[in-house]
Amino acid sequence: xxxKKFVTMLFASTxxxxxxxxxxxxxxxxxxxxxxxxxTTTTAATASNAPAAAPAAAPVSADAxxxxxxxxxxxxxxxxxxxxxxxxxxxxxQHGGAPATEEDAVVGPAGxxxxxxxxxKDIKGNFPxxxxxxxxxxxxCQYHPHVNxxxxxxxxxxxxxxxxxxxxxxxxxxxxxxxxxxxxxxMVSTKKLDKVEMTPFKIKCDxxxxxxxxxxxxxxxxxxxxxxxxxxxxxNLPPGQYTVVAWHEKYxxxxxxxxxxxxxxxxxxxxFKG
Length: 274
Ligand SMILES: [Cu+2]
Known about the structure:
Elements: H1 3-16, H2 21-30, H3 36-47, E1 65-74, H4 89-93, E2 117-120, E3 134-139, E4 142-144, E5 147-151, E6 155-160, E7 166-171, E8 178-182, E9 188-192, E10 197-204, E11 212-218, E12 223-225, E13 231-237, E14 240-248, E15 252-260, E16 265-273
Parallel strand pairs: 1-16, 3-6, 5-11
Antiparallel strand pairs: 1-13, 2-12, 2-14, 3-4, 6-9, 7-8, 7-10, 10-11, 14-15
Bound molecules: copper (II) ion.
């Protein structure tokens, strides 16, 4: 950084964003080469705990298509056992009446499969990164949500809602791993992942062996996670021919080719077997 740039930044930080100054220095290390205005905007958004403003909406094409779908599990649903949390009385106390169950395969009464990450594998383009953070909460000594994704460079806020120690041990392969303790209730760590990693990687807690979560890092916004009713929706998709991938932590992944025309809405179905 040149002295001139440093002085300019210092002046702007002091005058306008003295509270955010500490974070400004961090941001400037990561974002060297960007102009000062961009850094300041990023810093102010990152430093604030106020509800984030709506992200800059991606340009909606009048021709945009929609993919909807249903993911099902075929055969007898595997039984998910109760999680034994007695090693940490705090965790156990958060599930007094109804102990939490494992989440490796969340299957509904009609075979609806939740927590399947569905995404477009092969779309090219330059898609703006939302400035709004994606949040993972550690609550009742489980991760919420269980499966999620961020876009490259989008803030990922990891929050400890529990009055017990958790550590965030993220195990990506393309991005850098990190492992960070959160001993205090209310702590939030914010990360940015800078490489595409479309197959979700595991995040675990080394204190509580049952805690597992999965996270993907996407170059575009065309992804969804199946809900407990098995459905998903990918909207605002430019017309075209795509490969759609459905990934599940236990049952692997499948692909389908799909073609969507202008303003078309198309339904897909994926079926996984044990
Ligand atoms: Cu934990």
